[in-house]
Specification:
The chain is built from 13 helices and 14 strands. By secondary structure, the chain is of the alpha/beta class. The chain folds into 2 domains: 235 residues, Rossmann fold; 133 residues, no CATH class. The strands form 3 sheets. It has a 9-stranded mixed β-sheet with strand order 3-2-1-4-5-7-6-8-9. The two termini are 33 Å apart.
């Protein structure tokens, strides 16, 4: 069911894109692999009640749904008589009592909470910095991260949730989730394309993970995530540890201490991840808050990112939140080829220092670079 009663601006700020029943079924199948008995099932951002539309894999449990959206709750109330619904802001005054859940009851939290990174450039012109009221200890730049932090405060035995894979694989996001991750182990994970949801990601889908977390004393570390092999809905496995990354050797973002000293005339646009690179510029001529000034000795590495952008369109959605990958040893053998291709690609940037590249030279460079990327992405692209 689509979110028909919300405008596009409201959907963006509330992160309200509702979950197809088949994905709820997948989540419950994963939960059934690891779960012990529970007493209460809570969806604190239930919308129209998608997570109550599929049989839960345990009997004799009670169901509670809550949402800040009263119109959606009215629809859910009409459709699911066995569920107790509450008009509540799940991120404000977080405690079990507001839902009528006793401290001794074994709780599982389910759902597809809103996710809306206000720092992302996607739809940034219509995003609000604070889309709803929330307690200070769960306030972050992304609603979905705030929801996961709110779950920890309710002390569930399990969390069965859909959220962007970037919450796990991007170290800055993982750090924000530390209060949750230190208490919950990632037991099951299945990665799928955000295009599975209606009215979102029509062009470049991004990876969503269907995750099952279990409370324990070990939690989940970022090292666990780096070493983990994730499986996609299509049956492909991948890991962060499969690659080296160019951000180990160059800057992704401008330094606040950085100044254009004239040592290098070349400038580059901020790079967040593969999906952002697909949308953004590479070499630029203007000075902005997003300008990286390139040290002369790093020029070929930035040329590498420039040419990587051309190949990034071939990469599968599940690598979209990865940093730019590189095989450093193989790069060093042909690094001048990346410079050649960038000179040809951006004559307005390089013409003051470099002559036009002869066609036979660029053709040879292209063949070597093309062979390099075929090897780098063997099996996934």
């Amino acid at each position: 069911m689509d979110v028909a009663h919300l405008s596009f601006r409201e959907k963006t700020n509330l992160g309200s894109f509702y979950t197809p029943s088949r994905l709820v079924g997948l989540a419950y199948d994963l939960f059934a692999r690891v779960s012990g008995a529970v007493d209460v099932v809570l969806d604190s951002s239930c919308g129209y009640g998608a997570f109550f539309s599929v049989p839960f894999p345990q009997k004799n449990v009670r169901f509670i749904g809550a949402d800040i959206d009263e119109v959606a709750l009215n629809v859910a109330t009409e459709n699911f008589s066995r569920v107790h619904f509450l008009h509540e802001n799940a991120l404000k005054n977080i405690n079990r009592e507001k839902y009528g859940i006793f401290s001794h009851e074994r709780l599982v939290i389910v759902g597809n909470p809103p996710y809306n990174d206000v720092t992302s450039r996607v739809k940034n012109h219509i995003k609000r910095e604070n889309p709803c009221e929330m307690d200070s200890d769960v306030r972050t730049r992304d609603l979905g991260i705030s929801f996961l932090l709110s779950f920890e405060k309710l002390s569930p035995e399990y969390v069965v949730v859909l959220h962007p894979l970037s919450y796990l694989i991007k170290q800055a996001n993982f750090k924000l989730l530390e209060p949750f991750m230190r208490k919950y182990a990632l037991r099951e994970a299945l990665v799928l394309n955000s295009r599975e949801f209606s009215d979102t990601s029509k062009n470049n889908g991004f990876p969503i993970v269907v995750a099952v977390y279990e409370r324990n004393t070990f939690g989940t570390t970022y090292t666990d995530i780096v070493r983990r092999r994730f499986m996609t809905l299509e049956g492909v496995s991948f890991s962060i540890s499969d690659y080296d990354y160019v951000c180990r050797y160059i800057s992704k973002y401008p330094s606040r201490f950085q100044r254009n000293t004239g040592i290098s005339r070349y400038k580059f646009f901020t790079m967040r991840d593969v999906n952002a690179l697909k949308r953004s510029r590479t070499f630029i001529s203007d000075d902005t808050a997003n300008t990286i000034y390139i040290p002369t000795e790093k020029l070929e590495l930035y040329c590498y990112v420039d040419i990587f952008k051309d190949y990034s369109q071939k990469l599968p959605y599940f690598l979209g939140n990865f940093d730019v990958m590189i095989n450093r040893d193989e790069f060093e053998k042909i690094k001048n080829d990346f410079l050649v291709l960038s000179i040809e690609k951006h004559p307005e940037i390089f013409s003051e220092e470099f002559l036009p590249v002869p066609k036979d030279v660029s053709n040879r460079a292209f063949r070597r670079v093309d062979f390099y990327f075929k090897n780098l992405f063997k099996g996934v692209a």
